[in-house]
Amino acid sequence: MYSFFESVEKSFDKAAEFTKWDKGLLEQIKACNSVYSMKFPVKMDDGRIEVIEAYRVQHSQHKTPCKGGIRFSKEVNQDEVMALASLMTYKCAIVNVPFGGAKGGIKINPRNHSTYELEKITRRYTAELVKKNFIGPGIDVPAPDYGTGEREMSWIVDTYASLKPGEIDAAGCVTGKPITQGGVYGRKEATGLGVFFGVREVCNNEKAMAKLGLSKGIVGKRVVVQGLGNVGYHCAKFFREHGAIVIAIAEFEGAVYHEAGINEEELFKHRKATGSVKDFANSTYIASSSEALELDCDILIPAALENVIDGNNAPRIKAKIIGEAANGPLTPEADEIFIAKGTLVIPDMYLNAGGVTVSYFEWLKNLSHVRYGRLEKRFTESMNHHILTEIEALTGKQASIKARNLIEHGADEIDLVHSGLEETMISATQEIMDIWQQNPSIPDMRTAAYICAIDKVGISYTELGIFP
Ligand code: NAD
Q1: ∠ CA(137), CA(143), CA(304), 5° rounding?
Q2: Between 450 and which of 15, 130, 271, 327 could a Cys-Cys bridge form, CB atoms 3.0 to 4.6 Å apart?
Q3: Which of 56, 30, 135, 82 is nearest to 461 (CA)?
């Protein structure tokens, strides 16, 4: 049984065999450069002093700053943070986000603490990072992860800015902030939308679809989604809006199925009102949630948690494509079974990179101190208006109101963020598919993704000239 970090190393080694890099350089790419393990005291509401265990791991500085979320969980340990930091390096490399990988963790159960205690823990953790020069817009930029969100990111940026008076780029010390604190529009749906763009691009690959016996394109594909949280909800929404049929959605208390499609928004409202997906109109309820994963479908999107498909249930999975929206939903045993069955697994390492991609856009916004679209929106609208008016005069025909609105519209921040995300996911998918399809001995898309990451990090190290 391998630890999480060891299993990441194993996948790396498997892919490294297909690359040309020197053994020593591969060792450097794999290694975690800096591991900061800390303990600090925090006085709780009842006057007790609790010693908090926390970590920040910077896996790679081949590009700076480093980037990765902060997790609040009782399960946090050094091995897990190291593994997640390494995955961040590879993820960023694949989607051409110019950061090294990092990850942070605080070993607490946030549900066991009051808001005031959480604020004190977060602020003290930030102060510890500042003391050791482990945070900053050009050093290391955290983000939300399990158990953290906009609120914690606000505390971090405020603590950092107050300890670094006059630092003009202080807002870029963390991403996932609320809009009012320098956040960016489009962050919330970023991961789900990125998953959709990635899967759609795979479905547009004629060779891959022919191999699976599926038609090209996303329209009409039957999809099962596990998890109606942030990622699962947005995946289901974008698949449905673009013509796929989400035939089932699974939550932990059960799943609902309807061949003509489930509307995720209505299901979300129903679950909020009743506390369960059960009794959702026009649908069949499946009491054993994991059975939904085994439904006959074209695309399965596990978007809940890790290790949900293992050596036991993998043989019964009928989907031809599995899009890993969650982190680590498949065990290595499941991977081997899918390679043998010919199921196409689109790996988490790049497929759920939408969050970090949009975080990159947020960081750029913070460094430029200007909202996306502010300079050009009105100019574009006025130019488009002139062009359209001229065309109408020359042709003697009038555009419909709908067409006029579409043509004249200048890009808002949300338009630009979505467009940047689409470009990122399409390019990354094409790069990985090219690597995979050009070498028949590469067993799966996960290995191809690792090869893509290793090559990019390898090139960066070489260009840095640190190996004369
Ligand atoms: P979330 O907490 O918003 O949603 C998870 C959902 O899964 C919840 O609704 C939960 O009830 C449901 N769930 C739990 N156990 C289940 C089970 N056994 N069967 C079916 N559903 C179950 O979390 P999220 O942000 O949507 O993240 C989901 C996954 O995606 C995680 O693995 C996370 O690491 C990964 N991820 C998230 C982001 C992001 O931007 N949020 C980015 C990258 C990766």
Answers
A1: 160
A2: 15
A3: 30
Mutate to test the pocket of ligand 1, among 81, 88, 187, 305 (most ligand atoms within 8 A of CB): 305
Residue 182 backbone dihedrals phi, psi, to 5 degrees: 100, 15
pLDDT at residue number 468: 47
- CA 160–ligand 1 middle distance (angstroms): 29
- Segment 268-296 shows an average pLDDT of 96
At the fourth CATH level, which superfamily is domain 34-181?
Leucine Dehydrogenase, chain A, domain 1 (3.40.50.10860)
Per-residue pLDDT tens over the stretch 149-158: 999 999 999 9
37's enclosing H/E stretch is: strand 34-43
Q: Which atom of ligand 1 is nearest to the CA of 231?
A: 26
Average pLDDT over residues 441-463: 94
Integer Cα distance of 323 and 302 in angstroms: 7
- 34-181 against 184-376+411-468: fold identical: yes
Look at residues 50, 52, 13 and name the one whose alpha carbon lies nearest to residue 29.
13
Indicate the fold that domain 184-376+411-468 takes in CATH: Rossmann fold (3.40.50)
DSSP state of 293: G
**Ligand 1 atom closest to Cα of residue 328:** 32
Domain extents for the chain? Answer: 34-181, 184-376+411-468
